[in-house]
Amino acid sequence: MKIMEYGLCVYNGDSKQININSKNDLRSYKDVYDFNQNPPVLVYTKTDEELYVIWEKHEINQFAQDHIHKYYPQWKQSNIIREGSVEDIAKMGEFINAVRAWSNQTNPDPWNNSLQSIVP
Hints:
about 20% strand; 2 domains; alpha+beta; 4 helices
């Protein structure tokens, strides 16, 4: 994850290290306070165009894998491939293909619920 501010990278690393798991968690990076006042006063909130996240491919793939495993953990995939009906195999394959299509699109956003809307 890269947090970009005005085109400059202000953070490059794992989102879990700084406890950012949603767009709401970015709020602390967006709010600009005047610390010359007591208590500090919010003077400006940066827009999504001024502060945004760029995801690394391996992070997007991890979101996709986690979503697939939510419905089809590895053991279930193996059982369906080995002993599932043609319909079960097709259903699982369509779901996995949809998740893969999501992850392969240009700039997928794991926080806009588009991934979560893909269900078997």
